[in-house]
Design brief:
With about 280 residues, this protein is α/β, with parallel strands linked by helices. The chain contains eleven helices and ten strands. The chain folds into three domains: about 110 residues, Cobalt-precorrin-4 Transmethylase, domain 1; about 100 residues, 2-Layer Sandwich (Methyltransferase, Cobalt-precorrin-4 Transmethylase, Domain 2); about 45 residues. Helix content is about 40%, strand content about 15%. Strands 3-2-4-1-5 form a five-stranded parallel beta sheet, sandwiched between helices. Strands 6-7-10-8-9 form a five-stranded mixed beta sheet. Helix 3 crosses helix 4, helix 6 crosses helix 7 and helix 7 runs antiparallel to helix 8. The model has no long low-confidence stretch (mean pLDDT about 90). It binds S-adenosylmethionine.
């Protein structure tokens, strides 16, 4: 094994696999998968096809969500006995909306060397092809599947200033879009469907355009990106004008508005708070 290793313990490698196109696996990933003593895989039958394709005959251990906690102990024991192990998932990067985090956490606790490999993931592939600009993004994986919980989840995104990246199954993409439009309005969005596969589709548009497209043809795997709402221009010359604007146009609390404006204007927070208090009272 050429990679670094602590004492006589094994190393746990986190190995991304393709999200569609079999060419999207790194040379290092193939080498590690060949060299380790065991490969932990979510669905061993599914992963066998990939491994056979690359001539990898390493023995497999099944490691899936429902047995994550139980299997982790066994795998940590193997690592402590000096076995080198690679963790893969059905597709993409393990532990990203996939099992793996519990094993990695326990590995850290047990002093095992963890080596994550860079590689394919739907979130980064979709974002890089979206053309959505900005200083960052919020990746939240799968939204809750039940309607009520999903609506609450979307409600929590109303004031988010970053593009939100979501994973969704084809069965639920339509419902997710409907609820998003209802709660967030017709924002700009983007979907990436069947990334790296024959029917790859990158589609920028308003959420209503995407909803229209999704009706009846919602096959394939999706990444949905929802852009932040347009910022309204804050208007006002005096402190009173600004306070009234925030009171009537933002979701911020009296306390948060006072904090923000005292910082923006270089005024004492209590002074701004007192004036805000009188204006908030007037509103009632
Ligand atoms: N660990 C994976 C990763 O790194 O991207 C994600 C696994 S998660 C169980 C599966 C979800 O990822 C799918 O439901 C879909 O939202 C997204 N996904 C995976 N492959 C995709 C692809 N080829 N095109 C679009 N979305 C994909």
């Amino acid at each position: 094994m050429q990679e670094h290793k602590v004492e006589n313990r094994g190393t746990l490698y986190i190995v991304p696999t393709p999200i569609g196109n079999l060419e999207d696996i790194t040379l290092r990933a193939i080498r590690i998968l060949k060299e380790v003593d065991h490969i932990c895989a979510e669905d061993t039958r599914h992963s066998k096809k990939l491994l056979n394709h690359f001539g990898i005959a390493t023995p497999l251990i099944s490691y899936y969500r429902e047995k994550e906690a139980e299997k982790s102990g066994y795998i940590i024991n193997l690592l402590q006995d000096g076995k080198n192990i690679a963790l893969i998932s059905d597709a993409g990067t393990p532990a990203i909306s996939d099992p793996g985090a519990i094993l990695v956490q326990r590995g850290h606790q047990a002093g095992i060397t963890i080596v994550p490999l860079p590689g394919a993931s739907a979130v980064t592939t979709a974002l890089s092809g979206s053309g959505i600009t900005g200083d960052g993004f919020l990746f939240l994986g799968f939204p809750p599947s039940k309607k009520g919980q999903r609506q609450k989840f979307i409600q929590s995104l109303v004031n988010c200033e970053y593009p939100v990246v979501l994973y969704e199954s084809p069965r639920r993409i339509e419902g997710l879009l409907q609820d998003s439009i209802e709660i967030l309005g017709d924002r700009n969005g983007f979907w990436a469907r069947e990334l790296t596969k024959s029917f790859e589709e990158l589609l920028p548009g308003k959420l209503t355009d995407l909803l229209e497209k999704s009706a009846g043809t919602n096959k394939g795997e999706f990444v949905l990106i929802i852009c932040p709402g347009e910022k309204e221009q804050v208007t006002g010359e005096t402190l009173e004008d600004l306070l009234i604007w925030y009171r009537d146009n933002s979701e911020l609390s009296l306390k948060d508005v006072s904090k923000k404006l005292s910082g923006d204007l270089g005024m004492s927070r209590s002074q701004v708070y007192q004036q805000a208090l009188s204006l908030w009272d007037t509103k009632k």
